[in-house]
Design brief:
With about 300 residues, the chain is of the alpha/beta class. The protein has eight helices and twelve strands. The chain has a nine-stranded mixed sheet, with helices on both faces. Strands 1-2-3 form a three-stranded antiparallel sheet, with no helix packed on it. Helix 5 links the parallel strand 10 and strand 11. Helix 1 crosses helix 8 and helix 2 packs across helix 4. The radius of gyration is 19 Å and the shape is globular. It starts with 6 loop residues before the first strand and ends with a helix.
């Protein structure tokens, strides 16, 4: 290896950075095209949200929706520790096809910019820009599938791991803003939150902050009062955790904080769904297992529960 191509940092198991500044990813780089999925009967296509930042998304809908019927909207943010993956990665694409079939929704899977080429808060800003685009004049966004099928009174934000972290911050920001989109509920799958004691060096790699794992982006329990359900500005929150996931305890602590505030105001319903014997995002790595079927069923039921 030439001196210009020596490794300056290895962020296992995701990528390595070379001394010449190039980034070599060895996870999350596979992709599949959008189109019709015969197994689920779901259509998808790629759309541009903002050409100035190359912000895009993959949008999904059932092939058949009764004429005049409006269905819920799920805005999805993928995981990958803010440094790998995309909506086109096979496990995310197939997972969204499955959700759209089982929950009968329109889904918008956001392709936010990744670190280290784009350090945080780039991913948060892209994610917010996607919500601004969706608001598009009170639900009149210029996208035919949304205009024809979307029920803008039933918009859900959903994400796994880093994506669940993102929707926590999006909900806080939307509640404090005048953005004209109503968030009915949040679905947080294995949320990526740390405490004051770091577990790995991934976070400090993606977020140039002097606060480390006490940065409010990764630790929702710092900076004053613990997170409350009312601050999220929606009616319902579902938090999914997996028993063997290193993030499980933090997800439960987040749930308990929301649940305590739920009891105080009575306006928000907060649910915890724990999968025994499974690890982080098992439903994507092993989608054919019984536990994955249970997770997707719970997810779809949460969306369609009135």
């Amino acid at each position: 290896m030439s001196p210009a191509r020596q490794i300056s940092r290895d962020v296992f198991p995701f990528l390595r950075v070379h001394t010449d500044g190039t980034v070599e990813r060895y996870a999350g780089t596979d992709s599949v095209p959008a189109g019709f999925d015969p197994e689920t009967g779901v259509l998808s296509k790629d759309i541009v949200i903002s050409s100035s930042t190359n912000l895009s998304a993959r949008i999904y809908r059932p092939k058949s929706v009764p004429e005049g019927r409006k269905i819920p909207v799920v805005v999805y943010y993928h995981g990958g520790a803010f440094i790998v993956a995309s909506p086109a990665e096979p496990m995310y694409h197939h997972g969204l096809n499955r959700l759209v079939r089982e929950a009968e929704v329109v889904a918008v899977s956001v392709d936010y910019r990744l670190a280290p080429e784009n350090p945080l808060p780039a991913a948060y800003e892209d994610s917010w820009a996607a919500l601004e685009w969706l608001a598009g004049g009170g639900g009149k966004v210029d996208e035919p599938w949304l205009r024809e099928y979307a029920d803008f009174e039933r918009v859900f934000l959903a994400g796994d791991s880093a994506g669940a972290n993102i929707i926590h911050h999006l909900a806080l920001r939307r509640c404090r803003s005048s953005l004209a989109v109503k968030i009915h509920g949040l679905v947080m799958i294995h949320p990526y939150f740390w405490g004051k004691d770091p577990i790995d060096n991934w976070w400090t790699f993606v977020c140039p902050s002097n606060e480390g794992c006490d940065d409010p982006y990764i630790n929702p329990f710092v900076g004053g009062a613990p997170p409350s359900a009312e601050e999220l500005g929606c009616q319902r929150v579902a938090i999914f955790v997996a028993e063997r996931d290193i993030l499980c305890d933090r997800g439960k602590a987040y749930y308990r904080s929301l649940a305590r505030s739920e009891g105080q105001n009575g306006k928000v319903r907060v649910e915890l769904v724990e999968t025994k014997g499974e690890d982080h995002i098992f439903h994507l790595f092993n989608p054919d297992c019984e536990a994955a079927a249970g997770l997707f069923d719970s997810w779809a039921s949460f969306i369609n529960h009135e």
